[in-house]
Amino acid sequence: MENIHLIIGEDKYRIEKKLKELIKAFGVDEFNVVTYDIEETSLSEALTDAQTVPFMSSKKVVIIKNIDFKSKEEFDEESFINYLKNPPTFCEFIIVPNKKLDNKTKLIKLLKEKSKVYEMSNLETEQLETAVVRYLEKRSIKIEKKALDELLVRTEHNTHKVMNEITKFGHYYAEGGIVTLSDVEELVSKNVEESVFTLTNAIVDRKKDLAMDIYYDLLRSEDPTRLVSLIINKFRELNYAKNLITKGYKKEDIQKFFNATPGRTYYIMKNAKGIGLEYIEEQLGHLSKLDYDIKRGAIDKKIGLELYLLRI
Q1: Please, which pLDDT band fits residue 76 given cuts at 50, 70 and 90?
Q2: Within 10 Å of residue 85's Cβ, how many Cβ atoms?
Q3: Of residues 74 and 106, more confidently modeled
Q4: Residue closest to 107 by CA, chosen among 66, 75, 73
Q5: CA dist., res. 215 & res. 250, Å (int)
Q6: I need a surface site. Which of 41, 55, 101, 244 has the fewest CB within 10 A?
């Protein structure tokens, strides 16, 4: 158990950070650190390397990424079990699966029994906010609350994207600098999917002015017909969420269902709880008719979506 390490979870940034921490802690030179992507290389090759004495060193690190324990094609179960039961003392063996593990199988139970397990789940919104503030404070930089909120929206509450953006802030601002909302709007690119999500929230909240602002901003790069389709998808998402909540599903279940970040799941559930199924079905009816009218040329696509938003 001392030298087999299992890193699981959805947060890619935290996974890579943990990998670097482990390698540094092992004190192994770069010549004796090898990474195998099992989607490109066989597991048997990685296991052979892990059992080969390191070059001019007392220790080596072998990392295997993207291993799918359910795939019979890429996975030699017998050889892997033999390794788990008798790993060489000179190799720190790090496993990073590409899919969620089935904890009910004997193999995964053995793997977890023989490994040090590190779980790198997505950070909750409050945890991510704290991480951003602390990172910037270490560099004597502050960030306004509205700027922080917008940063998380534009990065989809994704730790990897968030850290990439605030690393730029560290280079852009001098000590004592303050990151403002306008700075974030200028420096951080908007994600179209997230902008449509925010637009749908504005529709649900009947915030007409905000909805129009987002719409005109999206028009710079997006076709109105595509926007109608994306808004329809968001209302269908709310419909699914409403039904899941009614059936007693918890936040974790809904997050997995939509493959969403904790922050986005929070807003999906908040909106779904705050509106009725009749309202969702009514909006889907209006939007489907608008989509049909645009495609048959009965109304101009730009004007048609604008009129819909003015009536919310």
Answers
A1: confident
A2: 9
A3: 106
A4: 75
A5: 32
A6: 55
**Amino acid residing at 162:** V
45-62 residue pLDDT tens = 999 999 999 988 899 999
Residues 206 and 290 in one domain: yes
- What φ, ψ does residue 251 adopt, rounded to 5°? -55, -45
Strand intervals (E) in the chain: 4-8, 33-37, 60-67, 91-97, 116-119, 142-143, 178-179
Q: Determine contact, residues 172/140, Cβ cutoff 8 Å.
A: no
Q: What are phi and psi of 67, to 5 degrees?
A: -85, 135
Residue numbers of the domain that contains 297: 192-310
Which pLDDT tens digit goes with each residue over 183-216? 898 888 777 887 898 899 899 989 999 999 999 9
19-36 pLDDT, tens digit per residue, is: 999 999 999 988 999 999
Say which residue the tokens 């998808």 belong to: 233
Residues 100 and 210 in one domain: no
As given in the structure block, the two tokens for residue 189 are: 């690119």
The torsion angles phi and psi of 34, rounded to 5 degrees, stand at -125, 135
Q: Are residues 110 and 133 in the same domain?
A: no
Domain total in the chain = 3
Q: What is the CATH number of the domain that holds 165?
A: 1.10.8.60
Q: Which tokens go with 267?
A: 């807003």
Please say which residue of 68, 84, 119 terminates a domain.
119
Residue 37 sits in the same domain as residue 99: yes
- Amino acid identity of residue 137, one-letter, is E
**Residues 97 and 32 both lie in one domain:** yes
Which one-letter amino acid corresponds to residue 23? I
Of 119, 154, 174, which residue constitutes the final position of a domain?
119
